């Protein structure tokens, strides 16, 4: 039995169709790409993971692009250009070959599964309110072979601001923070300035003629992201870069600043052997009991069955199991029931299922005296119905009912209730490019985002599985592949900084650093994407200290409060001589 199963990302993404944003009106068009038809006879202006120019087949002129997608590389060619905020653009290109994609990083895209002759692809998109650059790209698909492209064009106004509009203000600095307010200040914009507008998302939350403002009437322990724009009688400047702050009043759950989190095979052995609760070393700060599973997919009735003697000959009695949990808790450790896993599909399609979930999970927590709950929904547990495109106001029953159930459990157990989540990248970071069924993509993409957002006020730790994942595009516009430091850096930075959600026009706000941990396989047998301890430490050094980031720039800034590391699993770590624990626990203890 394997805990993690790679999702059908390839199958999902091959379903993509054209996703188009409605343009508010275009300005005078101009070609913005350098070397759009590759007539320089080389790839000047383009950055390619593989590719060259050819003299045949071409559509017009003397040259065209060719690139071959391998089993591990899509052969992406991209180009970044200056654009104006909130402005409509049209990207076109002529392509041929199998599975050729044309699109805008973080935005709309289109593709053709087969083009034996040059075929025109078109993508219309509108830049964001603060966007001043855009990366356009072409790529094939893994293992599908050679594609060609010619006469690529990006039409629209260049990146020069409208004459007379103020310059962009400086990034806000966070000042005094209370349980209900956040103070901001920023450097003045250049040019003639009438005043400044402070934005949270698309909403104006303050207007002032000064270079500071205090935003009040905020909820305790709530996270807010602000940007500032200057305005005058001519118009409004682009928004500044954003700054994020969290109001005071967050509950202390008793966790150490940096925690080691591990899943314990409590209901099965999975080839790695059974580990008795009493034998789990004290280095583990959160122990996730795997797994509670439903009686049927849609029942909501969760049962936790401890490993049978036939599979786990050394399994302890229930009394000893409970006594060992109490001993861990007396040392400050947290023990949670994890719901789901590979085989535990949970779809709360009805309010009856929601209520059964609350009742049955409460019974497990009470029976064993647990500290809370871990949500490890995989496969088809979460999805988004057609038209459900606002992560802030979801309408799909399986999402709405899960949120309601978690809020009910929080209310029942109070301030010390520990809630963690272990989604796969497909359900979180892939939402940067594709959200639900928007544009014809898999309706599960990004489907954890509304759940995370709705419970962010009491979510203890989110530890996304940085394994069993396909390549994922980061905020740097690059594809990142599991197993390297850059994958952990890019994936974690997305959760900390927040990110635009596909082509919805909305931005998912980042989480607090103490709510974020990195999910890793303990060993090569535990899951695809094993990362050596030295490389993990390189990634955490970047994320926590801002050092050793390579070529990556942290959009969310260094996070000294990063919670720590999660692994699947304690059992696999014991099987491989405790490499994960022995390498990472002293390292985490040494962080600031």
Automatic annotation (TrEMBL):
<dbReference type="InterPro" id="IPR008979">
    <property type="entry name" value="Galactose-bd-like_sf"/>
</dbReference>
<dbReference type="InterPro" id="IPR001579">
    <property type="entry name" value="Glyco_hydro_18_chit_AS"/>
</dbReference>
<dbReference type="GO" id="GO:0008843">
    <property type="term" value="F:endochitinase activity"/>
</dbReference>
<keyword id="KW-0119">Carbohydrate metabolism</keyword>
<keyword id="KW-0732">Signal</keyword>
<feature type="domain" description="GH18">
    <location>
        <begin position="258"/>
        <end position="591"/>
    </location>
</feature>
<dbReference type="InterPro" id="IPR003305">
    <property type="entry name" value="CenC_carb-bd"/>
</dbReference>
<dbReference type="InterPro" id="IPR011583">
    <property type="entry name" value="Chitinase_II/V-like_cat"/>
</dbReference>
<dbReference type="InterPro" id="IPR050542">
    <property type="entry name" value="Glycosyl_Hydrlase18_Chitinase"/>
</dbReference>
<feature type="domain" description="Fibronectin type-III">
    <location>
        <begin position="168"/>
        <end position="250"/>
    </location>
</feature>
<keyword id="KW-0624">Polysaccharide degradation</keyword>
<dbReference type="GO" id="GO:0000272">
    <property type="term" value="P:polysaccharide catabolic process"/>
</dbReference>
<dbReference type="GO" id="GO:0008061">
    <property type="term" value="F:chitin binding"/>
</dbReference>
<feature type="region of interest" description="Disordered">
    <location>
        <begin position="154"/>
        <end position="173"/>
    </location>
</feature>
<dbReference type="InterPro" id="IPR013783">
    <property type="entry name" value="Ig-like_fold"/>
</dbReference>
<comment type="similarity">
    <text>Belongs to the glycosyl hydrolase 18 family. Chitinase class II subfamily.</text>
</comment>
<dbReference type="Pfam" id="PF00041">
    <property type="entry name" value="fn3"/>
</dbReference>
<dbReference type="InterPro" id="IPR003961">
    <property type="entry name" value="FN3_dom"/>
</dbReference>
<keyword id="KW-0326">Glycosidase</keyword>
<dbReference type="InterPro" id="IPR036116">
    <property type="entry name" value="FN3_sf"/>
</dbReference>
<dbReference type="Pfam" id="PF02018">
    <property type="entry name" value="CBM_4_9"/>
</dbReference>
<dbReference type="InterPro" id="IPR017853">
    <property type="entry name" value="GH"/>
</dbReference>
<dbReference type="InterPro" id="IPR001223">
    <property type="entry name" value="Glyco_hydro18_cat"/>
</dbReference>
<keyword id="KW-0378">Hydrolase</keyword>
<dbReference type="Pfam" id="PF00704">
    <property type="entry name" value="Glyco_hydro_18"/>
</dbReference>
<feature type="signal peptide">
    <location>
        <begin position="1"/>
        <end position="29"/>
    </location>
</feature>
<protein>
    <recommendedName>
        <fullName>chitinase</fullName>
        <ecNumber>3.2.1.14</ecNumber>
    </recommendedName>
</protein>
């Amino acid at each position: 039995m394997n805990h993690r199963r790679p999702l059908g990302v390839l199958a999902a993404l091959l379903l993509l169709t054209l996703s188009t944003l409605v343009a508010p009106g275009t300005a005078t068009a101009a070609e913005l790409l350098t070397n759009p038809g590759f007539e320089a006879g080389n790839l000047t202006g383009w950055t390619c993971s593989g590719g060259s120019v050819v003299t045949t087949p071409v559509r017009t002129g003397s040259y065209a692009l060719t690139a071959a997608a391998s089993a591990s590389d899509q052969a992406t060619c991209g180009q970044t250009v200056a654009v104006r905020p909130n402005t409509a653009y049209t990207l076109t290109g002529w392509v041929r070959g199998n599975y050729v994609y044309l699109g805008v990083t973080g935005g709309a895209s289109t593709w053709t599964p087969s083009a034996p002759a040059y075929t025109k692809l078109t993508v219309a998109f509108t830049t964001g309110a603060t966007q001043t650059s855009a990366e356009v790209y072409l790529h094939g698909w893994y293992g599908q072979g050679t594609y060609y492209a010619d006469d690529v064009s990006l039409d629209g106004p260049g990146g020069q601001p409208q004459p007379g509009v103020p310059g962009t203000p400086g990034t806000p600095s966070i000042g005094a923070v209370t349980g209900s307010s956040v103070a901001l200040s920023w450097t003045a914009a250049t040019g003639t300035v009438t005043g400044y507008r402070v934005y949270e998302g698309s909403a104006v939350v303050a207007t002032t003629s000064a270079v500071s403002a205090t935003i009040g009437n905020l909820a305790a322990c709530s996270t807010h992201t602000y940007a500032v724009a200057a305005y005058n009688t001519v118009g409004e400047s682009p928004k500044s870069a954003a700054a994020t702050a969290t109001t005071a009043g967050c509950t202390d759950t008793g966790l150490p600043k940096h925690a080691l989190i591990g899943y314990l095979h409590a209901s099965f052995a999975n080839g790695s052997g059974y580990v008795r609760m009493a034998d789990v070393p004290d280095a583990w700060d959160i122990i996730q009991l795997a797994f509670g599973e439903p009686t049927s997919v849609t029942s909501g009735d969760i049962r936790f069955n401890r490993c049978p003697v036939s599979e786990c000959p050394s399994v302890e009695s229930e009394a000893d199991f409970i006594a060992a949990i109490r001993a861990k808790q007396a040392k400050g450790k947290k023990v949670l029931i994890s719901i789901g896993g590979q085989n535990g599909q949970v779809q709360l399609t009805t309010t009856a299922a929601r209520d059964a979930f609350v009742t049955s999970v409460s019974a497990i927590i009470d029976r064993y005296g647990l500290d809370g709950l871990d949500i490890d929904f995989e496969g088809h547990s979460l999805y988004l119905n057609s038209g459900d495109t606002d992560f802030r106001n979801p309408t799909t029953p399986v999402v709405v009912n899960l949120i309601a159930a978690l809020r009910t459990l929080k209310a029942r157990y109070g301030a010390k209730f520990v809630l963690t989540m272990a989604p796969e990248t497909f359900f979180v970071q892939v939402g940067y490019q594709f959200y639900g069924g928007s544009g014809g993509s898999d309706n599960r993409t990004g489907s954890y985002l509304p759940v995370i957002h709705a419970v962010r006020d009491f979510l203890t730790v989110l530890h996304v599985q940085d394994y069993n994942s396909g390549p994922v595009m980061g905020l740097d516009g690059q594809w990142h592949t599991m197993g390297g430091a850059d994958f952990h850096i890019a994936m974690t930075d997305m959760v900390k900084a927040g990110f635009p959600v596909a082509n919805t026009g909305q931005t998912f706000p980042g989480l607090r650093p103490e709510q974020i941990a990195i999910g890793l396989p303990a060993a090569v047998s535990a899951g695809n994407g094993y990362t050596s301890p030295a490389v993990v430490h390189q990634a955490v050094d970047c994320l926590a200290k801002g050092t050793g980031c390579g070529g990556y720039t942290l959009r969310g800034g260094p996070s000294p409060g990063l919670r720590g590391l999660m692994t699947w699993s304690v059992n696999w770590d014991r099987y491989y001589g405790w490499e994960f624990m022995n390498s990472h626990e002293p390292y985490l203890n040494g962080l600031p």
